[in-house]
Amino acid sequence: MTEPSAVPDDNSLDGLRQRLSRFAAARDWEPFHTPKNLAAALSVEAGELLEIFQWLTPDQSAAVMTDPDTAHRVRDEVADVLAYLLQFCTVTGVDPLAALAAKIDRNELRFPAPGRPDGPRRSD
Amino acid sequence: MTEPSAVPDDNSLDGLRQRLSRFAAARDWEPFHTPKNLAAALSVEAGELLEIFQWLTPDQSAAVMTDPDTAHRVRDEVADVLAYLLQFCTVTGVDPLAALAAKIDRNELRFPAPGRPDGPRRSD
Amino acid sequence: MTEPSAVPDDNSLDGLRQRLSRFAAARDWEPFHTPKNLAAALSVEAGELLEIFQWLTPDQSAAVMTDPDTAHRVRDEVADVLAYLLQFCTVTGVDPLAALAAKIDRNELRFPAPGRPDGPRRSD
Amino acid sequence: MTEPSAVPDDNSLDGLRQRLSRFAAARDWEPFHTPKNLAAALSVEAGELLEIFQWLTPDQSAAVMTDPDTAHRVRDEVADVLAYLLQFCTVTGVDPLAALAAKIDRNELRFPAPGRPDGPRRSD
Questions:
Q1: What is the count of structural domains for chain B?
Q2: Interface probe, candidates A42, A52, A54, A81, chain D, greatest D C-beta count within 10 A
Q3: For labeling, which of B57, B123, C77, D59 is most exposed (least CB within 10 Å)?
Q4: What is the distance in angstroms between the Cα of B10 and the nearest Cα belonging to chain D?
Q5: In terms of residue numbers, what domain contains B85?
């Protein structure tokens, strides 16, 4: 019998994605993890992160990590957003790093950097 | 003079985070990138991902990637969410992988897997 | 045969709620209008309203209605949020005005106004 | 001296909007109530409403008001969404009922009801 914990933890993005999958499977949470539900949960958690900032001025917002309790709360909400994003990627088969790399490539063409008519990705 | 594009792209999570930082710096977008604004943008993009699913049944939701146009839209919104999450992490100094690993560790204690009173992280 | 439009429009909150119900019924949209779907749609529209403001400074935010195109967009998103909120109330049977009145009553006790230890609702 | 509570409460939409304004003014909360902050708070509260539904099946979602505690939570979140929407309307000068009436008028042209090529608003 293979114990999940027998495998040393791999805290790369894909290793964490797999840890989350094992975590959900061990608790029989998979039936709840439709793409729709995970997209809703992601949006809810993004709202919880925003809640920390909703009444702050830009300056207060920039200093948010100087208070240890708030810093902990920020890290916790970042973790929740990333967790649901990765679980969404698992059930839809999306590769988040490939999706982002493709998006940056497109944006480099769409928004050329000033002074570089062709955009930085095309200069050579 | 160092060209950003002279460095071969590194499409790891941290490589993409750095590409996004260079992208924003080259366009003078940094003043807009307060933690508050990036948290708002993250929430907006999570809403755009949810919009794809809002009227779907669970079964339709599970089949969402079978339509190429919808699949493209899903990957695009995943990229946007991840982009703003990484940019938020840049300006706050949060390590997203460490934050998620710590959260999974806490959740393994908080929600022990059935049949393992101590939880899978403590069995050995 | 009764025409919905034979009834003069009543643009009170409840009149608009009823117009929205007739609108959805005439298009057979009711099966999509589960409380869950309407809560998701409400959240998506609130995100679209927030999108208008995401990169604005507080001062720019305060001046948002001076530009006619942006003002139109703001009114349009307010309408969408209110539309989904009212449709949510229709399918759940929630009376939004009674819910808000009760909430304000509770908040007047929870956050007494400065200089009025008992709160303004209790003074008589 | 005029007590706010000396005026009988008017729990119409506009009466509640005014109660919220007096409530914020009495607590010196007005500086926080920029359009941007209120749009963020609205989005956060819409997320809290969605949170109630995120793991529910469509059938469970339809039965959400049968549990008294959940029903209370739903009414409370509806109140929060409406409160921030009204406060947003106060600071931007948007008339929410007029905005929604105009939107329904537009949608009746945009989505004609089946069997009524001109749409129900134009039949006479």
A1: 1
A2: A54
A3: D59
A4: 34
A5: 14-110
pLDDT tens column, A42-65:
999 999 999 999 999 999 999 999
Cβ-defined contact of B54 to C41 (cutoff 8 Å): yes
Query: What interface predicted TM-score (ipTM) does this complex get?
Result: 0.87
Residue type present at position D122: R
- Decide if D3 is inside a domain: no
Alpha-carbon distances, residue D121 vs C4, C9, D106, D107, D112 (angstroms): 8, 10, 10, 10, 9
Contacts of B49 in chain D (CB under 8 A): none
CB-based contact A36 B58, cutoff 8 Å: yes
CB contact under 8 A, D113 and C26: yes
Place of tokens 């720019």: C60
Query: Which of these, A7, A17, A5, lies nearest to A95 by C-alpha position?
Result: A17
* pTM for this prediction: 0.89
- For an interface test with A, which of B81, B92, B95, B107 has the most A Cβ atoms less than 10 Å from its Cβ? B81
Residue A65 within a domain? yes
User: CATH number, domain at B81?
Assistant: 1.10.287.1080
- Does residue C116 lie in a domain region? no
Per-residue pLDDT, C119: 41
